[in-house]
Amino acid sequence: MSQSLHPGSEIMRRASKATVAMQVFSVLLLVGLAVIFAAISHRYATLQDGIRENALWSVYQLDREARKFHETLHFISIRGEPDKAALKEASQRYDILYSRMIILDEGKFDRRFGGEHDAGPALSDIRLNIKALESVFDGIAKGGNPSLAVLISADDTAEDLLSRTEALLIYANNAVSSDRADARESLMSIQIKSAMLVVTLVLSVVFLIHSLNRQLRAVRAAGLSFETITNDLQTAYQAADAGNRAKSQFMATMGHEIRTPLNGILGTAELLQLAALPDHVRQSVATIRKSGEALLEIINEILDYAKIESGMLTMEFRPTDLELVARAAIDIVSDRALENGNSIQLEIPEQLVDPVVFADPTRLKQVLLNLLSNAAKFTTNGRITVKILQLKNDVGSRTRFEISDTGIGIDREGLAKLFRPFSQVDATINRRFGGTGLGLTICLQIVEAMGGKIGAESEKGRGSTFWLELPAPAAPIKDARETAPAPTTCMSSLARMKILLVEDNKVNQDVARGFLAKLGQEVVVAGDGAEGVDIASIHDFDLVLMDMQMPGMDGLEATRRIRRRDGQRGRVPIVAMTANASEDDRQLCSEAGMDGFQSKPLSLAKLRELILSIQRYHALPVSADHKFQARRQEVIEALGEDGWQELLVSFFDDASGLLRKLDHAVSRGEVNDVDRLLHTFKGAASSVGFQNLADECQKLRGRGVTANDLRELDKTIFTHRTFLAA
After folding, report:
1. Three-class SS of residue 34?
2. How crowded is the C-beta side of 670, counted as CA atoms within 13 Å?
């Protein structure tokens, strides 16, 4: 490969040398330009034409007003008897003269006017002359009538003032004129240098064009040799792809490493809050928990933003009940809002045109949660309102959410910064309220991924309104029942279960054990995956809470080994309880045979809801439960609730008879009868939506059936019956 690359490499080396030469030449040109520009800038800085022109004009105005003032006083002195009108005119002239002196005195300019002498002393003498007359004309302004002798003395002072202003004007005019002549010579020199520079630049451009043409031909020749490095480019691409995967793995690892201790912090704080503590200690524990929850929000936002940047943001559109999603989000934020003295209310029309639409309820809830959390954060002792509107136009129907608050509001400049990554309205927001500035960016990406748009309207000090509009194709109302968000809290009592906790972190063990004890559950703890597999193979459990990352045998491998066992111990519900929170991790857990996924940090409410969902639904796995609910709805719509109950009673009666017949056929070794009975059993189970039971019957048809298999089948039927009876 090196020999085939040699000609092209030589061409590229020559092209590189020529390119370096052109770069050096360009640098020299830039240095020359910089020197000339510095000379021009220095000269312009020293000329100060505009300032001196203004100063000269001010001196001229001062001289002119001094002349008019002297003429007015001289006229009064000649007449001998000053009248009110003449005195008033003299006072006005003095005021104008005084203002001209102030303007010249406060002006920041070169007192030399570009000449050799300093005009500062002359200006000081002029100021003293004018100040000397101040008492006279202040008296006139107050209605006084000075004597003729006083006015004659003032006239003499004005005459002396006039001579001084004339001398100053003559000096300033001569100095500025001389400086202008010098400036013209300097500018002429600069003009000549600029012309030479332009000529040099033109020649340089011609040279560069010629050189670039040569380089272009050289590059074309070198391009012929690039085919031989295609494999190297492929290797580089694979390395870059591996780096991208490494970055994703790094984000997942960091999320896990941060969530693990955070789980201990939040869990321990919640356990402490449940204990009897002094008020000052309880407040400190509440502060710890709030700070930990704020850190968790930041971590979640950063991980979501990383997903967006890597293009991993996915949408799952399904029937979504708008009111249920909104109320679920409000329920989560209500406690935080109450802490700040806020009230939250939901406003929807009495009858929505399409109460159920196709959308991603999880992502929609995430957007509403973020907007409501911001409203609760920036509002104190106020009101937060969530409005749901449905708009119709020529394009189609759209659903609009408006989240309004009476909080601190945002000015026009702040509105322009919204929805930008890592952006806050002002620097004090992060110090006062915290946050990463990613929440609204994530909302924007989610809403746009759903084909909608989002915006905000606000006024400083008068609250804000954030709105989002989404396409709203109508969906069947009955389908939304299966996808409605689960309630955020559940106060139902829990049946006592025997739970195996597989967790290697001691702090997390203590937290989970404490929560489960509060919930009245029996807990057995295993310190790693191997120990968990051993314990699960010896004892029966109602639920296994399995950490994913553990030394030695991880949670995925431990789950696979448990699932390989026969009987109930191999079918025990297993829920991942892990600091990993990505969709890839969820997929890995599902492929390993886990029934659920609960990200850390845990809370008492989350654990209660998890256990309750297992108690309610695990007798029917997720897929079977879906089939069961769908079948139940179909039968109820056709036959009514009574018809459905009769169908269930009939199934369980038939199931008992089929089990007896199967036991008899198995004991006699009648294979054909066993297969026929299992086929009948499978059809009966499918007819009422017990798909897991039907699948179990199908598996038994493919192999020899034992008495133990029939006992497991009977146990499954008993579980279904118990579940429905509850």
Report:
1. helix
2. 12
